[in-house]
Amino acid sequence: MKSFKNKTVIVTGSSKGIGKAIAFVFLKHGANVVINERNKEQLNAIKEEFKNKGYHPLAIVGDITKPQNCKRLVNTTTKQFGRIDYLINNAGLSMRGRFENINAEFFKSVVDANLMSGVYCTQAALPAIRETQGSIIFISTIASIHGQPNMSPYCVAKIGLTALAQSLRIELAKSKVHIGLLRAGFVKNYPDKKVLYPDGSYVSIKRKGHQTAEEVACAVLKMIRKKRFMMTLTLLGKTTSFLQCLFPGLVYRVLCKTQHSKWYE
After folding, report:
1. Active site residue 154
2. What angle do CA 70, 204, 27 make, to 5 degrees?
């Protein structure tokens, strides 16, 4: 079994939810973990929580929708540990809103948070990961299988991650850099999880989850160990992927009929 002891991993968006769970599972497996969040107070709180459990991640604050902050994240990591083995592009922003109600700036902010953050971090970290022949993992969602109602910017970004991962897999095939795309299902909400609405407000998610953040984190380790390109989690995710491949018209009709249900609130 592949050991993660003394390997160095950067986990973006790691102060809560899936990112926090991924950081923790790598810490438990002996890796040098770099956590990142744009909110300094939240990042320090998670660092202290990990410290109380006996772990000492390197915390680097920064908004990674800005290329210069991604470069600083990578440079600080290599200066501290001398290498980068894994980059987990997890940072993102959930949203709800009908397309006709979304202004251009809002649309761009969601795409920047979910897609461009992964682009900028990958560009910055790629030279170091080439040297270690490591892994670059993109955390996506089953919403990337087919565009969903009430979340068009989010789906644009997540479907964009699929295309990015596919392109990189081809371009880096000879370099032995592993590219992975993990399509998570609906994850059980942590207590203060909220989604962004077009008016700038944050509203608590009502939808129930089908898996835990810890299950997603374990899937990331499995993906790296087995060098899998794509993993789709949960029965709903696997079923949706299957139906989209064979019966795309059916998927479209189901989404049309359910677009005003509580699933998209």
Report:
1. yes
2. 45
Half-sphere exposure at residue 170, Cβ-oriented, CA atoms within 13 angstroms: 5
Supply the pLDDT for residue 193.
Answer: 65
Tokens of 152: 């068009």
Helix (H, G, I), strand (E, B) or coil at 231: strand
Question: What CATH architecture is 8-264?
Answer: 3-Layer(aba) Sandwich (3.40)
H or E segment and range at residue 32:
strand 32-37
List 55, 86, 120, 154, catalytic entry = 154
Q: Which two tokens stand for residue 207?
A: 């939808």
pLDDT tens sequence across 79-137: 999 999 999 999 988 888 888 888 888 899 999 999 999 999 999 999 999 999 999 99
Question: How does strand 194-196 pair with strand 202-204?
Answer: antiparallel
Q: Using alpha carbons, select from 50, 198, 227 the residue that is nearest to residue 135.
A: 227
Find the distance separating the first CA and the last CA of the chain, reported in whole Å.
42
Q: How many Å apart are CA 95 and CA 170, to the nearest integer?
A: 31
